[in-house]
Structures are given as structure tokens and as C-alpha cells.
């Protein structure tokens, strides 16, 4: 047991030090790389073999999801037709810890023909890939985290961290906002939280349960039951919101007044000043209000204070917003 724990702690210590050591490598070459990508008129093509290729896929995905057109090019497939992905205005980011990966080195003459900018991320500044590149970013590590110091561990962690540093520097320079991120993530929960508004989910028109203040509780209960939102809005003749009655209010009313409850008027038992939200607010904000107040619905008023819609917690949760 202790051996397992000691090994895991050693791995995390070595890898965290590898990432921390990158801080001193953020130099003019890093700045040049970020500025080149920022001004790129084409796409960023990331390439790498083996574990470096897996890191490259992650880096290209992060760039693409944050506003930098990017794709991953498998170096072994490149020489069999996939070089057609590369255009003259593109930038290549080639990742190789040794800087001597055969599949990448063999691509260099062909990439030069496209006259594309080559950014190399390697652990050896004197390697072939580093020397042939236009910009070299040092991602060297003192040791791998495995006990035989061979298996790519610290080196891949360092490469991924440097890729993140590039991506975050780019989004900072671009003034990238949450809404921009959401634009590229419409199907994910993050994007939904930042895009979907109350107006997209609220019930309107005939779906809204409404009674006037003089309606009996029997009538109010029928309205709650038929509209299936667990509540009814009490309005005056101009649809101005006066209050609400929830199914919880009904249960408590029966406990307090018994059968006489159903002959009472809606205006007598309604909750005044119910929790409301604007239709322009994000649905995630509506969910937060509901959770904070242990309620399941919010009333949406218009500019005059008249009822415009109802949003139910189930409407939000169905969208995967939580």
C-alpha cells in the first residue's frame, strides 16, 4: 500500500515540477509563436506522432474551440495524401520530445515547399526539427515520471501544458468571452449554460395557468392540474400579476382549513410578490434562483408587470443545464 502511494506521489511531484520549469521558457519565441497564430490567415495544423500526436489532438481541439481554426494532421498519413490539408497561409505546430521523430522530419522538405511557418515544440534545441523550424519552443523535462525514465509522462504533460499556455494567451489577446466560447459549444452543458435564455424555455399563451382573484380554490386547483406546472398565477383583468398559488399551498391549505378551503377565493390565499425573472436572463440564472429558494417555477413579467410566461425547473433540467 505505501509503495503504491509513494509511487503516485513521486509521479505527481515530477510532473508538477516539469510544468513549473516551463515558466522560465516563456520567452521571445513563445511571444512570436502566439503573435504568428494570432495573425494567421489560414489554419493552425498540429502534428505529432504517438503520444505527442495525442497531445497534438488535444491542443488542436482546444484551439478550435476557442476561436482559432485548427486541425490535427497525422504525420504518417500526411505523406500518403493528407498533406492536401495544408495550404500556404497555414501554420504548422510540430510536437516531438526528441525532435528527431522520423515521420515529422521527413515532412519538413514538403512543408517548406508550402512556405508555411513551422513552430516546433521539442525537448532538444539542437534536434533536426528544432533547427529546421522558424520558431522553437522548448518543452524539455529533466526526467520522465516512470522509474525507468522512458515512458512519455512528464514530457507529454509539459507539451500539453505549453499548448494550453498558447491557447489561453491567444484568447486573452482576442478578448475571448464566455459567450464566444458558448458559440463553439452549442451542444455541451457549458455552452447551454451560456446561451439558453429563459425566453427559449418559458411557457406562454394558453400554457400559462391563470385565474382571477375571485375564483374559488376549486377552480384554481383545476387550473393547476390542467396546465401541469404545479402552480397558478393570479392576475387582474389587465393580466397584471397579483400573486401565485402552488400545489404546495393547496396541500397546506387543505391541512389548515379542510374542505372549506375549496370554497375560499384565490385572492385570499395567494402568495403576493412571487419570485420573478426577466425573459432575457440566462436559464442557468433561473435555475440558481429556484435552487436558492427551494421552488420549482418562476413567473416572467413583461415591462408593465403583466404575465408573459412561466418557466419550470424541469424545462431547464431537460436541456442538461445543471
Overall number of domains:
2
Whole-number mean pLDDT: 91
Helix count, per DSSP? Answer: 16
How much of the sequence lies in strands comes to 15-25%
Order of helices and strands: HHEHEHEHHEHEHHHHEHEEHHEHEEH
Query: Major sheet: order of its strands?
Result: 2-1-3-4-5
Largest sheet composition = 5 strands, parallel
Which secondary-structure class do the elements indicate? alpha/beta
Low-confidence stretches: none
Radius of gyration: 30 Å
Question: What can you see in these coordinates?
Answer:
This protein folds into two domains: 2-176, Glucose-6-phosphate isomerase like protein, domain 1 (Rossmann fold, 3-Layer(aba) Sandwich), CATH 3.40.50; 198-317, CBS-domain (Roll), CATH 3.10.580.10. It has 16 helices and eleven strands. It has helices at residues 2-20, 28-38, 51-65, 75-78, 102-105, 108-113, 128-132, 154-174, 178-183, 189-195, 198-201, 217-227, 247-257, 266-269, 283-293, 313-317; strands at residues 44-48, 70-73, 91-96, 117-122, 135-138, 210-211, 231-235, 241-246, 271-272, 297-301, 307-312. It is elongated.
Could you write a compact summary of the structure shown?
The chain contains 16 helices and eleven strands.
Amino acid at each position: 500500500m505505501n509503495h503504491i502511494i509513494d509511487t503516485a506521489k513521486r509521479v505527481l511531484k515530477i510532473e508538477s515540477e516539469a510544468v513549473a520549469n516551463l515558466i522560465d521558457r516563456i520567452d521571445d519565441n513563445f511571444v512570436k509563436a502566439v503573435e504568428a497564430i494570432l495573425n494567421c490567415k489560414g489554419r493552425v495544423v498540429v502534428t505529432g506522432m504517438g503520444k505527442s500526436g495525442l497531445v497534438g489532438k488535444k491542443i488542436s481541439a482546444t484551439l478550435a474551440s476557442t476561436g482559432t481554426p485548427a486541425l490535427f494532421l497525422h504525420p504518417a498519413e500526411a505523406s500518403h495524401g493528407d498533406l492536401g490539408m495544408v495550404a500556404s497561409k497555414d501554420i504548422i505546430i510540430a510536437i516531438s520530445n526528441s525532435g528527431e521523430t522520423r515521420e515529422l522530419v521527413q515532412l519538413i522538405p514538403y512543408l517548406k515547399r508550402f512556405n508555411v511557418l513551422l513552430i516546433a515544440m521539442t525537448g532538444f534545441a539542437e534536434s533536426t526539427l528544432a533547427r529546421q523550424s522558424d520558431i522553437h519552443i522548448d518543452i524539455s523535462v529533466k526526467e520522465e515520471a516512470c522509474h525507468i525514465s522512458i515512458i512519455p509522462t512528464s514530457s507529454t504533460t509539459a507539451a500539453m501544458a505549453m499548448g494550453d499556455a498558447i491557447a489561453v494567451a491567444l484568447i486573452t489577446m482576442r478578448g475571448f468571452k464566455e459567450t464566444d466560447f458558448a458559440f463553439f459549444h452549442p451542444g455541451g452543458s457549458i455552452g447551454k449554460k451560456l446561451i439558453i435564455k429563459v425566453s427559449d424555455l418559458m411557457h406562454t399563451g394558453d400554457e400559462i395557468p391563470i385565474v382571477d382573484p375571485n375564483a374559488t380554490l376549486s377552480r384554481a386547483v383545476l387550473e393547476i392540474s390542467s396546465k401541469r406546472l404545479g402552480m397558478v398565477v393570479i392576475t387582474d383583468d389587465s393580466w397584471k400579476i397579483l400573486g401565485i398559488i402552488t400545489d404546495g399551498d393547496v396541500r397546506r391549505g387543505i391541512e389548515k382549513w379542510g374542505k372549506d378551503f375549496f370554497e375560499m377565493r384565490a385572492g385570499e390565499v395567494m402568495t403576493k410578490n412571487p419570485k420573478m425573472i426577466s425573459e432575457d436572463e440566462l436559464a442557468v440564472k433561473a435555475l440558481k434562483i429556484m435552487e436558492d429558494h427551494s421552488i420549482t417555477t418562476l413567473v416572467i413579467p413583461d415591462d408593465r408587470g403583466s404575465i408573459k410566461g412561466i418557466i419550470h425547473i424541469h424545462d431547464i433540467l431537460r436541456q442538461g443545464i445543471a
